[in-house]
Amino acid sequence: MTIEVRNLVKSFGSFKALDGVDLKVDSGELVALLGPSGSGKTTLLRIVAGLDWPDSGEVFINGEDALAQGARERHVGFVFQHYALFRHMTVFENVAFGLRVQPRTVRKDEAAIRARVKELLDLVQLDWLADRYPSQLSGGQRQRIALARALAIEPRILLLDEPFGALDAKVRKELRKWLRSLHHEIHVTSIFVTHDQEEALEVANRVVVMDKGRIEQIGSPDDVYASPATAFVHGFIGESIELPVEVEGGAVTLGGRPLRLTADGLAPGASKLFVRRHDMLVGPPGSGAFEGAVRHVRNFGPVQRAEVALSGGQTIEIDAPRDKELRAGDTIGLEPRRYRIFAG
Amino acid sequence: MSAVAAQRRTLPGFGLTMGLTLTWLSVIILIPLAGLFLKSLELSPEQFWNILSSRRTLNALRVSFGLAFAAACVNLVMGSVIVWALVRYRFPGRRLFDAIVDVPFALPTAVAGVALTALFAEKGWLGAPLAALGIKVAFTPVGIFVAMIFIGIPFVVRTVQPVLQDLDPEIEEAAGSLGASRWQTIFRVILPSLAPALLTGLALAFARAVGEYGSVIFIAGNLPNVSEIAPLLIVIRLSEFRYADATAIAVVMLVVSFVIIFAVNRLQRWAQSRIPAR
């Protein structure tokens, strides 16, 4: 099943939640909508689900005009950040709900409903919780039940709104892997919303980065990380050093001091220089484009993180290999191995 | 050491507040009720039975309990609709309507009785058109019913309102996206979630209507066996210095009310147990 939205616009009062969004999702894809809060990603998801309506634009699910249908007719599975389980029903009845409310003509008989619910509870590996109430489950269990409930109606597409947003870090990581393998198993076209870049890059086949109601970049996780299309994407995904620079005739200056970097083909004027933290190579003083004094060093994880005061006055954080000897007070040279300059 | 530790509590004042609670409840509620029972013991079982089985007493009890229950049921339905509108929609004057709900709480019941009587009397604003349709409200059991609805409505609204406010609109969206129609969402999701609060509201509105005196006696007409409520019969007996008769009726009202409230309470507990707190 494919999803296509064209030129969606939606405002809440004077706030533009969506400002002309076009997106195509192919059959069987698992797409992440990634962006900061207020970027319009949840609004986009809710419009596709039929829980909100756009001011203008079009939505097609499998080529059919979805805006002509209500949420009920769209056959879309929706998973809410806060689960939205029916608290007066057991886990079993929650999952069975979508089957029980079907029109009598197509409704399955009781035995078939029981079999289907059993199958779904097995799929989310929680069949032993069938008789519990939602309040007796942990957050991770509740979200898996919510997913089973959404899948019960055999949805054409599956939409997940910050599905792991309310869970703690460890459970999130487990569920991420689990969601990926589940998608591999059932292959339903899925979109999930997240503000967690790690989650998006790890789970999705394709990542849609949004900001201020617009799509900034669409690409594979590798793409958006390795070749960000805009300054926003570079700053939002991965940890970057961001420096305000001037571009003039292919030369780059930082605070009036020329840098030994090239900016061929870039329009002159104020620009932003982006370097990944681990792409800043440490050398002896005078060896690189930058020079600075190490303020302090923290040693944890696979790299050491150093705070460096550049000679121009800016403070940056770099990640250096652990075998590199760095001490507070050292003066070092820094050379970016890779960098990007964006106008503006 | 452990004995001392067990004595210590983070919240101080257990002894004091518990003592005050017991004393106060005894003085205000338990001792007067015990007095009522003791007074009724002056009657022999036979006398007691004769008073209760008299036609007038039975009719008065039937009018009181029957109409109170009917009024509570009407309040349950209409109260739920009012709560829904107040909680789920934003419209001009919402706060005003929200405040108006409390009027029956605050208004002296006699004032309410006079106002309702004037309104529903044969020449009143509502009474006249109803009379044209052949419906007589004032000075009939229908009038009692109307007064009981009037005084009971805030109880349903105020018990259900906070619970509905707590109910996440997302569960309605979830039901909708799972294919439930509006009616299915209401009857399978929303009402069952509200059931404990609805039952409490019903019980409170019923209890209030059973005990109502002031507003009812103005509009009832107070015809023995037809529109005479039990509380009024108690007052009549008292004014005739037939104190034992009065207490016998009072004891029956007390016991029946208690049994009904207790039953509703159990029912509500049962419904609540199926919806454990989040």
Automatic annotation (TrEMBL), chain A:
Keywords: ATP-binding, Cell membrane, Membrane, Nucleotide-binding, Sulfate transport, Translocase, Transport. Involved in beta-(1-->2)glucan export. Transmembrane domains (TMD) form a pore in the inner membrane and the ATP-binding domain (NBD) is responsible for energy generation. This is Sulfate ABC transporter ATP-binding protein. InterPro entries: AAA+_ATPase (IPR003593), ABC_SmlMolc_Importer (IPR050093), ABC_transporter-like_ATP-bd (IPR003439), ABC_transporter-like_CS (IPR017871), Mo/tungstate-bd_C_term_dom (IPR008995), P-loop_NTPase (IPR027417), Sulph_transpt1 (IPR005666), TOBE-like (IPR024765). Residues 3-237 form the ABC transporter domain. It holds the Pfam family TOBE_3. One of its GO terms (molecular function) is ATP binding. PANTHER family: SPERMIDINE/PUTRESCINE IMPORT ATP-BINDING PROTEIN POTA, SPERMIDINE_PUTRESCINE IMPORT ATP-BINDING PROTEIN POTA. The keyword ATP-binding applies. It comes from Bradyrhizobium diversitatis. Belongs to the ABC transporter superfamily. The keyword Transport applies.
From TrEMBL, chain B:
The gene is cysT. This is Sulfate transport system permease protein CysT. The keyword Transmembrane helix applies. Part of the ABC transporter complex (TC 3.A.1.6.1) involved in sulfate/thiosulfate import. It comes from Bradyrhizobium diversitatis. It comes from the Bacteria. It is found in: Cell membrane. The chain crosses the membrane at residues 12-38, 63-87, 99-121, 133-157, 186-207, 243-264. The keyword Transmembrane helix applies. InterPro entries: CysT_permease (IPR011865), MetI-like (IPR000515), MetI-like_sf (IPR035906), Sulph_transpt2 (IPR005667). The complex is composed of two ATP-binding proteins (CysA), two transmembrane proteins (CysT and CysW) and a solute-binding protein (CysP). Keywords: Membrane, Sulfate transport, Transmembrane, Transmembrane helix, Transport. It is a multi-pass membrane protein. Residues 61-264 form the ABC transmembrane type-1 domain. Belongs to the binding-protein-dependent transport system permease family. CysTW subfamily. Its main location: membrane.
